[in-house]
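Example for tutorial group B:
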């Protein structure tokens, strides 16, 4: 029997030690912040390591503010995506997430302080994550298994001196569960439910009903009660420890699937909004895209037609014929994810602990937007033109006699096959929406050793590797090359039937005529010919090797005479290499995709950095009158980038508690961030920006820049005829800009100041309050000027350099073909933000207040007052600086409420095992941004119906019940009152379907049920 026990112990110890030595593993545990109950078990010193420092601390209060959410919050909110929980914090803003369809990268990212996801560092147990995608330099939170998260610590005071310069805005650190024993199975099911009874501004339901009466194929009110977006998730957690307690393996596996949510399911997104007509100033219009169905046929000068049911050209009227592109957009992308991994650690002896982690995820999602088609392609005689022209021959047999006459074809023109100007905007409704099928396979691992060398010295050595494999299959897209051929049709001299001229000429024997000139003329054979899949593949890798030493110099007598603790220090070195590759196929790189806007070129590059760093914490006084705690924190980091040169970051912080119940803290930090691989090397290609109207559209008097600026012969100017035409402005409010990297980028510099106070009054046990002021200033910002800002600088201020970036097509447009605004990466003036964070917690037993048998109450509140969010384009004009605090859209994008908070109340009921929770989420109002000459943004007409977004309140309820010792169940409803989101016709591509679902709950109530069983 003794031999058997020893053999089992030896087997378990050998397995765990072997696992800890496995070459590929992930984040180390050395820098976790334990829950309060675990603090005394963390190390032999009884101290803890807090996010933002490598030095062990005697408590969880640091000189930089840290906000925490827990695994319990994940259960109470019912989230299946961890980013949805993080972005509920008022300091965090969603960047890429599941609500993005147009421009989706497929990743889930977070942007602290709205300074950009590139400036937010994401860690797992104190170790950084790599790029999420070859097109996105931010970490992908889809890789993180929610069930394994113990808590999330969000440090928002900047931490570049500790972790590197990409922590300018702060750090999101996911602390994972460890030392788990047994088996845990968790399952959850959820769905969205919404009552379609929108009664906000714009009289929208009546507007849609009116359009449905004349165009039912595109306009319909959805069902009164909608249930959609079903989600399900199953997770398995298994853990075993060695009998001697020296090691543990914790393994996990998970599956998640979320269904799609379409815009057409909601009354407030059943049509794409447009500005009210003059006759109905209080009603939104259902606007849309000029690339319509059954099509728009125009020369942008003399005529614009569509096709009626009889195959005749009739005048195109935008208010009647524009394509309603919103309903097919995904409000929520469908996704499917598999996760698998394991954590392990083993104490070889009292000085060496080996640790390792393996993480794998397989994630796929589909982003759908409106169908592709002919987006006024510039075609002539079966080829794409280079001069911006587009023509059709009068003898094209697809044209009827009436249609030929309508575009000015005479009998002589028909005989001669004369060419007439014609641009065609026609949706491929027969083929369905464009779908970007995005897939990631991600691997991540760390192997390391750590331990205490003696009473003073500790070490941590780590090697880390991560890789994300990327595939994007773009479906239901038209080929421009094939489209040009399919529209260039002649009469077959043999059969007398319409045939592509490329077939007759022997250029393309597979070509099939695309007959869009009569109802029902498009055949499946034509679709099979025109539709081509586009493919892009790529990968990202990150390699990190780091080593650090921490020391308690107090062991050697290095300490203040007024302090009990000695000087603490940490120092070390790190090597990191980030590399990526993006390889699009020829359809992408040639710009052959009709709905792509232009070419998507490949990208390949790498950058490596060598860092040295040091920290010190110097206790000055402890346990004295007016100095219960007084200390100084110092940190420094020097980085040498292969591309970008050397940078230095530093921090100085102070912590003063005159009495145990009041603590003041302050820190000042400097960081220098070098440009990353994507910012340096991204190939140039078209993207979209949002604008209500072209500034040279004379039909829109409110935004017209004037004849002197707009009318002329310069490349950025238009003719008077073009300025007054109906085609100069995009009906969808979307315009082209040329984006791309810039190898001449220089590092950006940031200065961060935080001032805070922490109250833990002795007269109110269980209560604490923190107030933290923040001020972050980034100079020489790595960004772009912004296409809107370039337009304003040219037409308002006459800046020649800005005018040179405006490249109109031959018809004076910026939204069709080659028309665009050049907006490449550059260093602009800067970006800054300031405000105040408030956090409060209070826990009480009702019996202490004389209410016996009523259980316990816990209150948790976190809020942020945004004082400023200022951009400086660096152009030097009065309106080159503008402050987006309290504004949305145009230059400001997603709303930036001046006040946001999240308040949660937990009631531990007297019923054994039953807990109830209620959450109040508040988002303050915001106003649409309209930039004035003086830099002010509140210049929208007072009568504009979407001028202001009202404050939004969301209320969530949840219950958890420990049904048995090993079984707990939960259920909840988020957005209990089914509050509708605010709407605007200026949302554009920064939001989705008339609102901002990355901020507001746009899909109604979310109902969820879950169960957890432990064995």
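The residue assignment follows.
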């Amino acid at each position: 029997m003794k031999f058997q026990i020893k053999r089992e112990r030896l087997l378990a110890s050998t397995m765990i030690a072997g696992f800890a030595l496995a070459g590929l593993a992930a984040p180390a545990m050395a820098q976790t912040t334990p829950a309060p109950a675990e603090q005394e078990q963390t190390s032999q010193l009884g101290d803890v390591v807090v996010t933002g420092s490598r030095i062990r601390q005697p408590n969880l209060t640091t000189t930089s503010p840290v906000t925490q959410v827990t695994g319990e919050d994940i259960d109470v909110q019912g989230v299946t995506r961890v980013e949805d929980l993080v972005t509920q914090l008022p300091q965090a803003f969603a960047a890429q997430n599941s609500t993005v369809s147009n421009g989706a990268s497929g990743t889930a990212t977070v942007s602290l302080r709205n300074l950009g996801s590139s400036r937010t560092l994401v860690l797992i147990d104190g170790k950084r994550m790599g790029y999420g995608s070859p097109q996105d330099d931010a970490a992908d939170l889809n890789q993180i298994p929610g069930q394994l998260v113990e808590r999330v610590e969000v440090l928002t005071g900047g931490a570049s001196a500790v972790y590197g310069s990409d922590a300018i805005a702060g750090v999101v650190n996911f602390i994972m569960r460890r030392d788990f024993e047994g088996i845990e199975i968790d399952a959850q099911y959820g769905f969205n439910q919404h009552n379609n009874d929108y009664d906000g501004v714009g009289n929208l339901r009546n507007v849609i009903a009116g359009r449905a009466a004349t165009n039912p194929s595109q306009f319909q009110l959805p069902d009164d009660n909608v249930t959609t977006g079903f989600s399900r998730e199953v997770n398995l957690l298994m853990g075993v420890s060695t009998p001697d307690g020296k090691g543990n393996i914790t393994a996990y596996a998970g599956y998640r699937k979320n269904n799609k949510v379409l815009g057409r399911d909601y009354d407030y997104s059943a049509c794409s909004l447009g500005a009210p007509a003059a006759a109905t100033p209080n009603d939104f219009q259902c606007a849309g895209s000029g690339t319509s169905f059954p099509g728009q046929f125009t020369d942008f000068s003399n005529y614009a037609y569509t096709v009626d049911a009889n195959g005749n050209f009739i005048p195109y009227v935008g208010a009647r014929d524009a394509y309603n592109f919103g309903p097919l957009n995904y409000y929520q992308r469908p996704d499917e994810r598999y996760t698998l991994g394991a954590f392990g650690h083993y104490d070889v002896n009292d000085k060496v602990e080996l640790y390792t982690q393996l993480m794998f995820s397989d994630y796929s999602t589909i982003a759908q937007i409106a169908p592709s088609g002919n987006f006024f392609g510039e075609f002539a005689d079966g080829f794409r033109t280079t001069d911006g022209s587009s023509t059709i021959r009068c003898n094209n047999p697809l044209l009827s006699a009436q249609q030929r006459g309508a575009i000015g074809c005479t009998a002589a023109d028909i005989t001669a096959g004369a060419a007439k100007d014609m641009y065609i905007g026609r949706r491929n409704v027969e083929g369905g929406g464009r779908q970007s099928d995005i897939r990631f396979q991600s691997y991540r691992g760390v192997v390391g050793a750590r331990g205490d060398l003696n009473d003073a010295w500790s070490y941590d050595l780590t090697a880390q590797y991560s890789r994300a494999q990327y595939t994007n299959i773009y479906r239901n897209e038209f080929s421009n090359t094939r489209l040009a051929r399919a529209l260039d049709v002649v009469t077959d001299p043999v059969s007398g039937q319409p045939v592509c001229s490329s077939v007759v000429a022997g250029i393309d024997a597979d070509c099939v005529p695309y007959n869009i000139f009569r109802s029902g003329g498009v055949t499946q054979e034509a679709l099979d010919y025109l539709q081509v899949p586009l493919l892009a593949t790529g990968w990202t890798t990150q390699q990190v090797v780091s080593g650090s030493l921490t020391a308690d110099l107090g062991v050697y007598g290095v300490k203040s005479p007024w302090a009990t603790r000695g000087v603490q220090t940490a120092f070390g070195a790190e090597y990191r290499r980030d590399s990526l590759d993006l390889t699009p196929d020829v359809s992408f790189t040639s710009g052959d995709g009709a709905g792509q806007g232009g070419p998507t070129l490949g990208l390949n590059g790498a950058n490596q950095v060598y860092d040295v760093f040091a920290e010190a914490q110097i206790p000055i006084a402890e346990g004295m009158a007016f100095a219960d705690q007084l200390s100084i924190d110092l940190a420094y980091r020097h980085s040498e980038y292969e591309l970008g040169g050397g940078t230095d970051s530093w921090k100085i912080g102070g912590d003063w508690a005159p009495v145990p119940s009041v603590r003041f803290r302050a820190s000042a930090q400097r960081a220098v961030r070098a440009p990353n691989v994507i910012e340096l090397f991204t190939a140039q290609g078209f993207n979209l920006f949002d604008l209500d109207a072209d500034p040279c559209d004379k039909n829109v008097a409110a935004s017209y820049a004037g004849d002197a600026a707009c009318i002329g012969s310069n490349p950025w100017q238009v003719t008077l005829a073009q300025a007054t035409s109906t085609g100069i402005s995009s009906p969808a409010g979307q315009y082209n800009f040329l984006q791309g990297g810039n190898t001449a980028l220089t590092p950006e510099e940031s200065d961060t100041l935080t001032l805070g106070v922490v109250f833990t009054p002795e007269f109110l046990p269980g209560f604490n309050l923190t107030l933290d002021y923040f001020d972050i200033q980034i100079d020489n910002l790595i960004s772009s000027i912004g296409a809107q800002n370039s337009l304003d600088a040219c037409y308002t201020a006459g800046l020649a350099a800005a005018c040179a970036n405006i490249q109109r097509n031959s018809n004076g447009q910026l939204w069709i073909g080659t028309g665009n605004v050049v907006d490449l990466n550059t260093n602009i003036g800067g970006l800054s933000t300031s405000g105040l964070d408030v956090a409060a917690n209070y826990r009480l037993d009702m019996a202490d207040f004389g209410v016996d048998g009523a259980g316990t109450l816990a209150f948790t509140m976190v809020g942020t007052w945004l004082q400023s969010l200022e951009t400086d384009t660096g152009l030097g004009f009065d309106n080159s600086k503008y402050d987006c605090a309290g504004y949305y859209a145009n230059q400001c994008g997603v709303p930036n409420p001046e006040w946001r908070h999240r308040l949660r109340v937990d009631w531990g009921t007297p019923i054994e095992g039953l807990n109830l929770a209620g959450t109040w989420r508040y988002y303050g109002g915001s106003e649409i941004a309209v930039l004035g000459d003086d830099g002010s943004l509140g210049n929208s007409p007072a009568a504009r119906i979407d001028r202001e977004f009202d404050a939004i309140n969301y209320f969530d309820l949840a219950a958890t019940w420990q049904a048995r010792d090993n079984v707990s169940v939960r259920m909840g409803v988020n957005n209990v009152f089914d509050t509708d989101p605010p709407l605007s016709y200026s949302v554009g591509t920064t939001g989705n379907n008339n609102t901002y679902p990355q901020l507001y709950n746009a899909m109604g109530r979310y109902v969820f049920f879950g169960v957890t069983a432990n064995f």
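The chain has 17 helices and 54 strands. Compare this with the pattern of hydrophobic and polar residues in the output above.
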